[in-house]
Amino acid sequence: MAAQTKFRGTATAIITPFKKDGSVDEAALRRFVDFQIKGGVEALVPLGTTGEYSTLNMKEQQRVIEIVIEQANRHVKIFAGAGSNNTAEVIEKTRFVKQAGADAVLIVGPYYNKPTQNGYFQHFKAVADAVDIPIIVYNVPGRTSGNIEAGTLLRMAEEIPNVAMVKEASCNMAQVMEIARNKPKNFSLLSGDDALAYSIIALGGDGCISVVSNEVPKEYSHLMRLCLKGEWTEALQLHYRLLPLMNINFVESSPIPVKTALAMMGMIEEAFRLPMVPITEPSRAKLKKLLEDLKLV
After folding, report:
1. Quick check: is 37 in a domain?
2. For the segment 265-295, what is each residue's pLDDT rounded down to a tens digit?
3. Contact assessment for residue 156 and residue 123, using Cβ atoms and an 8 Å cutoff
4. Positive or negative torsion for Cα 283, 288, 294, 297
5. Which residues are marked as active site?
6. CB 237: neighbour CB atoms within 10 A?
């Protein structure tokens, strides 16, 4: 595998817009890609958790990836999701991601079947052996009920050449520090939590795969660049300004709040696929007031 330029910055885990009939809103998706690029993010991540990949069939997943890559037109990097708890299926999806022209693939730790630490390692090794594309390991124990431990992740980074980044969403700062202290030089440590990205970059991280940048790509990517330049005082002011929005995006299961916010902002229709449902009225009122306070609506 050819040497990869280390990624640093903001990658938006983009939403998948739906129409009221439940179909993918392709026109809205194209507009949204344009909005993100104009906002200055360095990468887009279709089909992550925020993109509701688990309720899209394989054909829809492939179409979303194709649209995002085509619309982005190489202006930003594309890290496409290929999640599943079935290793053979992940390999199949990853082959498509590479063929479509993505820059890297985001692969979540297998969920429900609860692998051992060696099971996680062998899962990612099997994908890397089958498809030559940079891999982002996505560790999100709150979703998968299993943690890819720092030792396992560092072993992957050292022994599997394709493993180029981690989206670390364990919220375990001791684990984050172990990764930051011991990771290879060209390996990217990306926060999987908007509110912790400031701290993770201060500890040696490289950026964030972000939810809040769906709503405020310009402001959040600026925040990440300030952090990466070590301009901590200005960055902290912006961090605290955006923190209520970062937090309210998880007041109910994501991506319910962020998609509701984007609908209030006039960017998409407010439409979900089960088991996601509309936001509750108390949360809706809080979200609307916050968007007004931030002058986003």
Report:
1. yes
2. 999 999 999 999 999 999 999 999 999 999 9
3. no
4. positive
5. 138, 167
6. 12
